[in-house]
Amino acid sequence: MSNPATTDSAVVYDNVFTTPLDKAARFSFDEQVVACFPDMIRRSVPGYGQMLAMLPIFAKRHCQAGQVNSEGKRVSRVYDLGCSLGGATMALLNEKGGFGKEELQIKAVDISPAMTQKAEVLLQENYPEHDIEVITADIRGFELEPCDMVILNLTLQFLPPEDRTQVLQNIYNALNDGGILVLTEKTHTGDEQDDAWLVERYYDFKRANGYSELEISGKRNALENVLITDTLDQHHQRLSEVGFNRSLTWFQFLNFASMIAFK
Ligand SMILES: Nc1ncnc2c1ncn2[C@@H]1O[C@H](C[S@+](CC[C@H]([NH3+])C(=O)[O-])CC(=O)[O-])[C@@H](O)[C@H]1O
Ligand SMILES: O=C(O)C(=O)Cc1ccccc1
């Protein structure tokens, strides 16, 4: 099945891997990926929409307005780390969450300037009156202010494994008591047979969403050593190591899973 052409509609379809690439080409969040990102992530991450839809529900239960904003009002501060185009931020502000304009202060951080430039425009267009700051920064070594909720939606997997504990430690330290971290990741199980089955069904999922064999294998090569998965056990172990005394997997769809950790 071929991709719909990148023509007149508002949707820019993901055509990034439609032509063969140098095998060594690494995946990067550049202008080309940014342009088609909403389509790419929707067609490539099973359950993406369902995961995002729960964010305002979790926020409503666990954000305790632990901060005071510049106008002296109590607000809940939320970090969206590796925000890309602000999909998670926008999900939080969706009317289903029922947050008033002044109840949340969101800080959305991403290392890719191409992403943050576009996120800034989209968030300003859609939520002009909300307290949202878009920050271009590496979340490694980034200083977090005290907060009620942190979202790491499909971001930790792009950090070198040796940097992951430190990032989670900073998050744990910044969270107020009662605060939460929502951590969504592509995972593997460590069982050869199970992983082979999960990966094959994941590729079936991509085929069903219109990706060709060339696109699937091109992206697989480009993601090698760029997106490095952990097992769910490794994630929960790391969360426990940095101090979270409770974490659970609340969502799983093939090899993608989302966890919540409670401080
Ligand atoms: N060190 C880093 N510091 C900051 N950002 C980083 C870093 N490394 C990678 N990123 C950023 O992490 C994001 C990962 S995408 C997140 C989706 C989003 N959360 C969503 O809910 O739509 C997931 C995906 O594309 O599979 C990209 O925008 C990178 O620039
Ligand atoms: O497409 C893949 O293979 C993925 O693992 C998901 C994804 C989605 C968007 C950018 C990078 C990876």
Report on this structure.
With 263 residues, the chain is α/β, with parallel strands linked by helices. Helices cover 39% and strands 22% of the residues. The protein has helices at 31-44, 48-62, 87-93, 113-126, 161-174, 192-208, 213-223, 232-241, and strands spanning 67-68, 74-81, 104-110, 131-136, 147-153, 175-186, 246-253, 256-262. Strands 1, 2, 3, 4, 5, 6, 7 and 8 form an eight-stranded mixed β-sheet that branches. Helix 2 packs across helix 3 (87-93). The chain is globular, with a radius of gyration of 18 Å. The termini are far apart. Mean pLDDT is 93; it is low at 1-8. Residues 40-41, 44-45, 186, 219, 223, 227 line the site of 3-phenylpyruvic acid. It is an enzyme of class 2 (transferase). Catalyzes the conversion of S-adenosyl-L-methionine (SAM) to carboxy-S-adenosyl-L-methionine (Cx-SAM). Residues 78-179 form the Methyltransferase domain. Belongs to the class I-like SAM-binding methyltransferase superfamily. Cx-SAM synthase family.
